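Appendix B, Record 12. Input sequence as logged:
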Amino acid sequence: MVIVITGFCLGSGPGLADDGTEQLVFIPVKGQIEPGLAEFVQRGIDRAEKIGAAGIVLEIDTPGGLIASAEEIKNAVFASRVPVVAFVSGQAKSAGVLISLAAGKIYMTPGASIGAAEPIPNTPKILASWRSELESAADANGRSTEIAAGMADRDIVIEGVKKKGELISLSAKKAVELGVADQVVRNKDAFLTTLSQEDGVHYRTVELKPGMGERMAWWIINPFVSPLLLMIGFAGIIIEVFIPGFGVPGTVGLLALGLFFAGHMMAGVSGWLAVFIFGLGVIALLLEVFVIPGFGVAGILGLGMIVWSIFLASTSAGQAMISLSVAMLGSIVLIYVLVKVMGRRGMWDRLILGMNLDTATGYVSAKKDLEKYVGKEGVTVTPLRPAGTADLAGDRVDVVTEGGFVPRGAAIKVVLVEGGRVVVRPVK
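Logged structural output:
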């Protein structure tokens, strides 16, 4: 009752809203700019809109990343119904420049920097498209389009700022002087104080952080990790195709490929179509391993579907080609090393019969002196249909008739010996 009454009294008094308190959502834009991060920023903006936040802060510290992902974040910022500002606490390089320029205001700490946004690869078509993106973002917020273009294009000359062949990269102080940034703030607390004073409200910060699943997904789609997973997956499947049955290599390969697709789906890069095509490819390979002898149409079709699914799951066709090339080359090297190392240690012999059972390795057939039984008589121990066992001079010998049936206990005589074959006929 005390808790309820206290809560009622607190609730009936002046609330946070009455004090001018508003929610300010911080969204970290740190590390490589990639599809997973773009999805995370979009979800953060959506959440800020749902909770009725007064503002959004993109806390930027990035060396750059994918142009397509930066463009997605820029579009999300422009479409946001909540005002967005950028707080550059470290570096805003390459793709980070576009994200910063898209924000309504840019605040920077003394040690921060912005610029050096040359695209890679720097082809005329890509450069022209990237320049237009930077210029449009700068123009939308009243910033210098010439400075923005000079961060990406080496051929631009800006008197007193940039010579031909250089790229513009600005410190916080210089960025404010040239009108790229709005203000230099000492740290995050000073930034909040400044923003509160400018907007005339007291902000309550809401810190959005990526969850474990998102961090894992970002790690999986990393340009260095994805090819490694593909390499392990391809190597495991290729080894499994040439080994009877299904075992450890195939299991490890499928787990690696499954992790690859799961990470890309969690990061929002791919959908269920890529997984469906991949599943069909795996089914075709399993049919090749278990049902269809050798390696033919089903195996080729399966590998083709898996390659297609990787193109569907990758961030771009270029990244898919790079990942596939690295994965295939790495798989060949890995298989070669495994064959050499495991071959020397005899591990392959546990999986497949790789030895000839010849006399050089100690495998010899049993030798019997059967010629001595020619002309001998005996009694059948088992029925001969036409093969069976007979007692010849006290020895149990495997014999065969000339084609007829001889019952058990009948008298027989050896008429011919050919190698290990003893031929008998009934004695009348």
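The chain has three domains: 21-210, 215-349, 371-426.
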